Amino acid sequence: MSGGQVGVALSLPSRPGEGVRSGWSPEAGPELEVDPVRSDELHPEESPLPVGGPARVSAGIAFELSGAVEGPGSGPGDVMAATLGVAPALMVEVEGGPRRLVVSPNISRPEGIDLGLVGVLVEHDGVQVATAAGAGAPLGHPAAAVAGAARALAAQGGRLGEGFVVFSGALAPPVAAGPGSNVRATFAWLGSVGVRLL
Questions:
Q1: For the segment 98-153, what is each residue's pLDDT rounded down to a tens digit?
Q2: Rg over CA atoms, the chain
Q3: Closest CA to 91 of 126, 146, 49, 127
Q4: What is the biggest distance separating any 2 CA atoms in the chain, rounded to whole angstroms?
Q5: What is the 3-state secondary structure (H, E, C) of 161-177?
Q6: 3-class secondary structure for the chain?
Q7: Which of 120, 113, 55, 68 is nearest to 86 (CA)?
Q8: CA–CA separation, 79 vs 116, rounded Å?
Q9: d(CA 143, CA 30)
Q10: Region of residue 17 (phi > 0: left; psi between -120 and 50: alpha; otherwise: beta)
Q11: Contact 160, 168 (CB under 8 A)
Q12: pLDDT (0 to 100) of residue 26
């Protein structure tokens, strides 16, 4: 049985023949997918994650909201005002199976940090495989992506609720991994998050 909704995960939609998309450009347009995250989809960082087959692991920034963000006029400023803290996160999507969101327990206050400039280094089994920055988030900035999600939900009569965890989207192309893999993402100013797949 699925748990209750505790947040949302944001992504750019895939297009035929394009595979999973990450990063953003003005030419990409305002497309944004907003998917619910349920309590049973949150996975603790310290616990190995059974996948049993191929998986994709994406690094991004998670927002923990202390207040609701709602309404068609929601902007990045509204998001930051409602944010308790931000943390490194990994979204693990298992081929033909469930997905899991791994969020670092180390939450940082966002004041004084330009999340669009936060760099991330992604390692697979200790080997660097990608680098990116917060500007690679959907809509060009992590807070802009969360605001876009609030606007999209408002159009459907919904909102980003108080206490929600929001994965603001992949900053770099996903890492192809599988059982036995270790994936770690290290963010400037925010720390790191890792997952060991079984």
A1: 899 999 999 999 999 999 999 999 999 999 999 999 999 999 999 999 999 999 99
A2: 15
A3: 49
A4: 45
A5: CCCCEEECCCCCCCEEE
A6: CCCCEEEEEEECCCECCCECCCCCCHHHCCCCEEEEEEHHHECCCCCCECCCCCEEEEEEEEEEECCCECCCCCCHHHHHHCEEEEEEEEEEEECCCCEEEEECCCCECCCCCCHHHCEEEEEECCEEEEEEEHHHCHHHCHHHHHHHHHHHHHCCCCCECCCCEEECCCCCCCEEECCCCEEEEEECCCEEEEEEEC
A7: 113
A8: 14
A9: 14
A10: left
A11: no
A12: 42
Residue 168: partners with Cβ closer than 8 Å, 6 or more residues away: 10, 60, 61, 62, 63, 137, 138, 142, 143, 145, 146
Amino acid 109 reads R
Domains belonging to the chain, first-starting first, are 5-196 (3.90.850.10)
List the structure tokens of 55. 């998986």
Residue keyed to tokens 């997905």: 99
